[in-house]
Amino acid sequence: MKRISLTQHLVEEQRLHNSIPAELRLLIEVVARACKTISHAVGKGALGEVLGSAESENVQGEVQKKLDILSNEMLLEANEWGGHLAAMASEEMETIHPIPNRYPKGEYLLLFDPLDGSSNIDVNVSIGTIFSVLKAPEGMGEPTEEAFLQPGAKQVAAGYAVYGPQTVLVLTTGAGVNCFTLDREMGSWVLTHRDMKIPAETKEFAINASNSRHWHPPVKRYIDEMLAGETGPRGKNFNMRWIASMVADVHRILNRGGVFMYPADAREPEKPGKLRLMYEANPMAFIVEQAGGAATNGRQRILDIQPKKLHERVAVFLGSRSEVERVTSYHFE
Ligand code: AHM
Ligand code: MG
User: Fold this and answer.
1) Tens-digit pLDDT profile for residues 91-103
2) Ligand (nearest to CA of 262)
3) Are 310 and 89 in contact (CB under 8 A)?
């Protein structure tokens, strides 16, 4: 197999599509390098004394794990000094993180969920990093939270890493989706899955069924119809998977199709769903659409939503196009 490194791929994409200027390439490479460092820490587990809770909560009121905080620091440190960013924002930080004055500033904004799937950290199940890249608005002086509040359609790049049996990095810059596998001996990212496409049809769905008593009628109907199997209205049997790490569930769907759901439900109407728009739903929606799939909040394309605040939550239905269209249409009946 001829090995194509992440760097070579990014340089060639720039030549082909003119979509990855040098600063953006640097940004992606720095994020990828930080993911390598996180992967190493995750892989050490108990031996690195990195498991368990830190004695703190994040802005969402969730208890932070030691690795949540470590991963956040690794991403901040890696991305501060390169001159490619104006500011960063993270699930683990209440406010934005401007680039310190001692470093030059660039034109990009980086958002991330440093370690997604926190409940899986201590039990050796796949977890990952999700990131989203926006351009800072023209003429922006000191970066503010408002600068980040752009619809997902404005993303110039998005990606995620999965720390699982293999460490992989999935990336889009708006010209399809490619996957790189970390060669752990060489320490390099190697292109292993080119132009990934999600099958339009599927027989697999992912949802946390323990919340079913809170679901709204369109979601209940959609799931009930699938559970009814061959003799029900769908006329076929469905299979269910739930890893509780969005990165791992989305990665499965990117490889073999499926539909992933974290709906809003009858609890806390001011908090639609669990997942966050800016650094979970938007980057995943960008990737899924670039792979031929679809992503909505049940009523609207996720990438069209105008964010109102940095840590805003959103309902998520994403994956195989025909299933996302079906469950979305049920919301209008
Ligand atoms: P996190 O960012 O705090 O890890 O939360 C997000 C995760 C997603 O990765 C996953 O899909 C979901 O939460 C799992 O939720 P649940 O605990 O309801 O299974
Ligand atoms: Mg998360």
Assistant:
1) 999 999 999 999 9
2) 1
3) yes
Q: What is the mean pLDDT of residues 178-188?
A: 97
Model's pTM, two decimal places? 0.96
| DSSP letters for 55-118 | EEE-TTSPEEEHHHHHHHHHHHHHHHSSS-EEEEEETT-SS-EEPPTTS---SEEEEEEEEE-G
Within 6 A (CB) of ligand 1 lie: 62, 91, 113, 116-119, 208, 244-246, 274
d(CA 61, CA 199) in angstroms, rounded, equals 37
Distance 92 CA to ligand 2 centre (A): 10
pLDDT of residue 56: 75
Closest Cα to atom 7, ligand 1: which residue? 117
Domains of the chain: 6-193 (3.30.540.10), 204-332 (3.40.190.80)
> In the predicted model, what is the mean pLDDT of residues 162-180?
97
Query: 140 C-alpha vs ligand 1 centroid, how far in Å?
Result: 34
* 255-272 per-position pLDDT tens digit: 999 999 999 999 987 778
* Residues surrounding ion ligand 2 at CB below 5 Å: 113, 116
Residue nearest to atom 19 of ligand 1 (CA): 244
